[in-house]
Structures are given as C-alpha cells and as structure tokens.
Amino acid sequence: MRGSISLLLRKNRWLPPVAAIACASAFTAAVMEGMHFFLVFGTAAALVFASYVCGYAARAFKVINYPALLNLPRRRYGEVWDALAATPELARVAACGEEDESAVCRSAQTPVKNLVELAGVRPEDDILEFGCGVARIGLELAPRCRSWTGADLSVNMLAIAAKRLEGVSNTRLVKLHQVGLDQLEGDSFDLVYSTNMLAHLDEMDRWLYVKDAFRVLRVGGRLCIDNVDLESDEVWVAFARGAECHQDLERPPYLPTPSTAAELTTYVLRAGFVEEKVYRRSPLVIVTAVKPTAP
C-alpha cells in the first residue's frame, strides 16, 4: 500500500500541494459559511491529512543532485568520491544516504553489529578499514579496540573523517595513493574489514584489496568483507529493474555493482585465507576468513 502511494506521488508530484490548497480552501469556505459541524470537521481533517502528505512528499522527493561524472572512468575512485563529497553534507549522504550526523551514527549500528558478531572485535585488536569514507564505522569501533586505522583514496572523505574523529586518540587515517594497501606494513593488524565499499570497485580491484589484506594481517588475523548480494531477491529485483530502465544510458562511475558469495569466497581462498564463512544478512552477503598460521 505504502509503495503504491509513493509511486503515485512520484508520478504526480503536483498532486500533494494541489490537494493541500484545495482542502484549505474547502475548510475556509466551510468556516466562513457557518456550515454544519461535521462538514467543518471533515474539511479540517482533510486539510491536516493533505498537509501531512505534502510534507511527506517534500521529504521523499528531496534529491541530492549528484554530478553524472561521466567524464571519469570508474577506476579513478579518488576523483569520483572527492566530487561526491564536495561538502560535509554530501560526504555523509554519499557514505550512507544520511545527511544528519546523528542519523549517520545510527546507520553504523547494523554494520558494527555484523562485525562484532561475525568477525569479533576485541579490546586488544589493531583494526584496519579500507574504504573508510567518513569514518562512519571507525568512530563507533574505536572505543572497542586498541587502535583503528582508516584508509581511503578520497581526500574529501578523509577530511570529514578527521573532523568526526577529533578527540579520539587511538585512530589514524591514511590517504592511499593507489588501489591496494601497499602503504601499510605487513603483519600489523588483527582485523581488516570493508563494508559498503566493494560495490563501487572494479572486480579486479576487489581482489587486490583482499590480497593485500592477507599481507597486512597478523597470523590468526581476521578478514570481514561484504557487498550487496546479487543472489538475494531484493537485490536481484533492483538489479534487473536497473538493467531494464538504464539499458541505453551511460552508467555513472559510482553506480554500485553487487557480488555473489562465490565471487567473494574466491578472492578470499585465492589470497590464502582459511576458515571462510558466508553469511547472508539481506541485502548483504558477508564473508569472513582467517589468516592461517602457516602458508
């Protein structure tokens, strides 16, 4: 029902304000003409409802006008995400779809819960997030571990992350110069993870990050990666609809692309990890694994 109403409003955006004006006019006329109480009450109720719908529509249609960026190849990730994070508000929206800081913090609750439950977060852990964005997750994890490091290719994203992490002493940020974790020392982390990020990468670059994660993890260290799950009904419907609607359009470089469990586990196993496990928490497929004690 809600979906049908939303679709109707999106197709007829003129309807809510026109309905609100009509209801206001009817209520005013009913009062001025001294009409029956029930008629006045009815027009008042209609006005309240129309005003609510108008306000709902205004919020629902609030669109961030992202630049198309069709001049940039997908793999120029730093430039793409610098453009999307031109202001602090846009950076937060690009990171999680929320503009308000309190909403950004709330949006981190589920990813943090997944990490804690599936990979474990320990007080003695040195943790790395690649593709950390605005440190949406890092701000929540820092009190739970010995140290948190966030790495990203976007200068603008890291600038917002630095502001959000002010006063948090056990964190650091690394500006990556290229895809991969070459700038970070080997055998230096207990947990490496990435969330809400692989969807924006070329498949070969997904592999490069997983391979480098193996190098920078200590023996027994854990990996946790996720992506939207192409095999889930929810994601498949969106994927198929997008293919139908945008078949003749150039796709922007930041358009998310899903993964399958087989894809992610292939990267993990080829990198040398063991004890790989697959979890499905719609709309995500999440893979965890461990760096073995011997190659």
Account of the 3D structure:
This protein folds into 2 domains: 2-60; 77-290, 3-Layer(aba) Sandwich (Rossmann fold), CATH 3.40.50.150. It is 47% helix and 17% strand. The protein has helices at residues 2-11, 15-32, 37-60, 77-84, 88-96, 101-107, 109-118, 138-141, 155-164, 203-216, 233-245, 261-271; strands at 126-130, 147-152, 171-175, 189-194, 217-228, 274-281, 284-290. Helix 2 runs antiparallel to helix 3 (37-60) and helix 10 (203-216) packs across helix 12. The chain is globular, with a radius of gyration of 24 Å.
Structural features:
single chain, 295 residues, alpha/beta, Rossmann fold, 2 domains, 12 helices, globular
Outline the fold blueprint.
Elements: H1 2-11, H2 15-32, H3 37-60, H4 77-84, H5 88-96, H6 101-107, H7 109-118, E1 126-130, H8 138-141, E2 147-152, H9 155-164, E3 171-175, E4 189-194, H10 203-216, E5 217-228, H11 233-245, H12 261-271, E6 274-281, E7 284-290
Helix pairs in contact: 2-3, 10-12
